[in-house]
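ugh ok fine here u go
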Amino acid sequence: MPGLLGKKIGMTSVFGADGKNVPCTVIEAGPCVVTQLKTVEKDGYQAVQVGFKQKSEKHTNKAEAGHFKAAGVNPMRYLAEFDGFDQELKLGDEINVNIFEEGTYVDVVGTSKGKGFQGVVKRHGFGGVGQSTHGQDDRLRAPGSVGACAYPSRIFPGTRMAGHMGQDRVTVQNLVVLKVIPEYNLIMVKGSIPGAKNSIVTINK
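structure:
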């Protein structure tokens, strides 16, 4: 499906036609530059590789430099592949937010905020023990029993326990495009999207 790479700017709210206050996320979508055209004959599948945000040649290795030189574009920091664009594209073409229309739906893919090692209360929403009487004062946020006694003498895979939380690839589907601002390469989508401010996201039309 067609789409763009973008950067999450932050959240705000707008008033809808019915007067309700609608929370939304502002995304800097593109402009992206076509860096490679993949074909079935050469690559086994069809796709358009686009780049987002230029980077200096000093921070570009030789393989990347040759790739971008063949496309006739400046080195780009982020790359992604899309397919299904309406217009005919060639190397070096620029794709901007004009591919999105107000009222349509998009899927946004991003990396959620990393929370580090967290316990079961924060990670899975456990309620905790809830009382600290009768000599029980250090187990308020403990998971409780996670296994059986004699049989099966092990903990089943998938049991909810403490561990690493966040830093996952998350897709939020069917977000309504509330507004497109072409002069600033911005789109506003209803609701929230994964990731921190200034994180890179993929917007699929």
